[in-house]
Amino acid sequence: PMNIRSRYPGKGMNEGVVKDIARIDLLWNSLRKNFGKSGPYLFGDFSAADAFYAPVATRLVTYGVELTGAAREYQQALLDSPGVKAWSADAVKETEFVAEDEPYATAPR
Description:
The chain has 109 residues and is mainly α. It is built from four helices and no strands. Helix 1 packs across helix 3 and helix 2 (48-62) packs across helix 3.
């Protein structure tokens, strides 16, 4: 589950999560360096890989995770892309609330 409406810096952080974040940071930095020279996305131009990672980019914001270098720039490119901006704007307006899917959240008003 994800919640674009809220912010929970550090919530749920544990050793396994730290390892997963480090892996994403390394992967995104490496892919951008080796394949992303033609544009701001993972392989340069927007691709299915970017659509796949868009929810990850938003979750990193929700939990206050800071990436490094090209990975941080890539995340920002995703967040600034027209599709993700529109998706995020609509998500903020969402009123449906399923407590089991948003364990740290309270129902929007």
